[in-house]
Amino acid sequence: MASPFCLVLHTHLPMVLNHGRWPFGSDWLCEAAFECYLPLLEVAHRLVADGVSPRWTVNLSPILTEQLASPEFQKELSFYYENVRRACAESGEYFAREGKKELAELTRVWAEFYERMWEMHRRIGGDIPGTFADLQRAGDVEIITCAATHGYLPLLSRDESIHLQLRAAVETHRRHFGVAPRGIWLPECAYRPRYQWTPPTGRESGRTRAVRPGLEELLAAHGLEYFVADAHLVAAGAPVFLYRDYVPRRGARGGAAATEGKPGPGGTRSPHVPYRVASRGGTGSAVAFIRDPRSTLQVWSREHGYPGDFAYLEFHKKHFPGGLRLWRITDDSGDLGRKAPYVPAAAAAQAAQHATHFAGLVGETLAAAGGPALVCSPYDAELFGHWWFEGPLWLEQVARAMARAGIARATLGEALEAVPPRATIALPEGSWGEGGDHRVWLNRDTEWTWDRVYSAEAEWVEHLRREAPEGSDLARVLAQATRELLLLEASDWQFLITTGAARDYAERRVAEHYAEFKRLAELAGGLRAGQPLSPDDAAALRRLEREDFCFPDLQPAWGLPPAAGH
User: Can you tell me whether residue 155 is helix, strand or coil?
Assistant: First the structure.
């Protein structure tokens, strides 16, 4: 295989089913299904039918997969579909009465879009994860995993918590997709090497220290061979805040974050080859594929990249009631009142032009890299269709343009065979977040959430060291406590708090999962002391098992190292 292009799509949403609907809750999931997941599958099927294999690497996070495979999701999606159908009809009638023919016609465009996606959903039997699995079996995509609930691994205080996130991920992946994953998306591309670690916040910060293994050692222990790292970790680019144009940080200043990453001082390592990552004194390694700064910023940045083109659909302006987006970006003024009606044909033509440009850019990058090389372009999948409505069409046109130009496309697993790592390096700590460090997830606004996480981790590890009879009430209580810990550890809560995108909702979720964990831990202590569950406690346990239904085969022992946890 010639030097390949590797597109990586990170697909994730936290557990929202049974935790609200609108404005925060299951509507997020349904919106992503209609605007992103189903359109991506539609594009993939269209490409395959035309003999153009997508060769995408798709991360479906375990917690997202559990939700998409649930009966509860099917009910919510049907409810959502009826609402958007009604919104299209009512908005169309409103604009017709107002004499706004262009906008009335656009409501019909939306109605046709939703109907087409609903038909796609019906055609695949409502099984989004299974349809991706079919594409993987056919060799058209590779599915990799993620930490079970998208826990921010470098900041978790116990190795047992990381083992739990990884083992639950591998087991869930195997249950849904029939095979164990080879690769993993580290949440927020956050990495930590082996060193003497102390909690960054709380009473134990600076007081207790212990040598923690590098994340690559823990990945290797679970059979995970490779991950994606940000360019600045190999000094191949400056850190950038990729979400800036879609969920801006409160009080953050624009500017440098949107510019193309440039090599740091003395940076000489290329982002266009993979590296084997190992920590000094460590006992395992994994391969890192490096984010290509030029191609990713060309797509992520609304200011300098494709998504900001004036022909594309404006993300921020909606018609209420109904929430339909009917206007194009129009200009760079930021004045939502000046937006002109959307013209789908013009947007589609622009997407085709941008795809041709992107294929040329990738070809130039590979040619300039010299020798065996690759371009790894990772993105949040929700960028395509949700934030950038034309994104799925653009992806289709990119695949076709690269096929015409003879540019090889490969999954990460294929790329590892074509361009194996030639050097072993040590990576510094960091993420793909603002500043390249942990500041988005650990700051004055989120310190209290880590206090809760660390408290729950410590208590859970104490229970982990003591056995519970299989099938007993104690085993059920500890399994549910483990679920609540996993849900508490999701990095989404700190992200939503820091950006202000859904601060109250995220704070409530942290408080709720912590409170449920503490209650279950107390029940476990009582059961160990010989106290049976009261009727109220038994009812509360059944409620939690129903509402937080993820990972039905979960075992607390998965928090032990693989040899000990079986």
Answer: helix
* Conformation bin of residue 140: beta by default, left when phi > 0, alpha when psi is -120 to 50: alpha
Which CATH architecture group holds 5-436?
A: Alpha-Beta Barrel (3.20)
Catalytic residue (choose from 171, 188, 396, 457): 188
Q: DSSP for 328-381? A: B--SSS--GGGPPBP-HHHHHHHHHHHHHHHHHHHHHHHHHH-SS--EEEEEEG
| d(C-alpha 88, C-alpha 78), whole Å | 16
* Spatial distance between the Cα atoms of 257 and 444, rounded to a whole number of angstroms: 22
Q: How far is CA 445 from CA 199, 258, 507, in A?
A: 17, 24, 10
Task: Return the amino acid letter for 132.
Answer: F
CB 92 within 8 Å of CB 108: yes
Q: What is the predicted pLDDT for the residue at 478? A: 98
C-alpha Rg value of the chain to the nearest Å: 24
Of 480, 337, 502, 495, nearest in space to 431 by CA? 495
Per-residue pLDDT tens over the stretch 292-305: 999 998 998 877 89
**CA dihedral over 325, 326, 329, 335, signed as positive or negative:** negative
DSSP letters for 409-447: B--HHHHHHHS----EE-PPSB-SSGGGSSTTTSSTTTH
Burial class (CB in 10 A: 0-12, 13-18, 19+), 528: middle
Given a cut of 50, whether residue 248 has pLDDT beyond it is: no
Q: How far apart are CA 391 and CA 413, in angstroms?
A: 24
Q: Where are the beta strands (DSSP E) in 120-234?
A: 141-146, 184-185, 195-197, 210-212, 226-229
Which pLDDT band, with edges at 50, 70 and 90, does 247 fall under? very low
Residue with tokens 């906008």: 103
69: number of Cβ within 10 Å: 17
Instruction: Identify the bridge partners of residue 228 per DSSP, sorted by sequence position.
Output: 289
End-to-end CA distance of the chain: 38
pTM of the model: 0.94
- Distance, in Å, from the CA atom of 501 to the CA atom of 380, rounded to the nearest integer, reads 17
553 is catalytic: no
105 is catalytic: no
Closest by CA position to 295, among listed 416, 405, 395: 395
Which of 380, 434, 489, 516 is the catalytic position? 380
Residue 207 binned pLDDT confidence (cut-offs 50, 70, 90) = confident
AA identity, residue 461 = V
Contact status, residue 42 vs residue 33, Cβ threshold 8 Å? no
d(CA 54, CA 398): 10
Q: Tell me, what amino acid is at 227?
A: F
For domain 447-565, the CATH superfamily is: Families 57/38 glycoside transferase, middle domain (1.20.1430.10)
Q: Where in the chain is the domain with CATH 3.20.110.10?
A: 5-436
Q: d(Cα 100, Cα 110) in Å, to the nearest integer?
A: 16
Question: Are 162 and 398 spatial neighbours (Cβ–Cβ below 8 Å)?
Answer: no
Question: Residue 258 above 50 pLDDT?
Answer: no
Determine the residue type at 138: A
At 362, the amino acid letter reads: V
**370 phi, psi to nearest 5 deg:** 70, 140
Residues of the chain with CATH 1.20.1430.10: 447-565
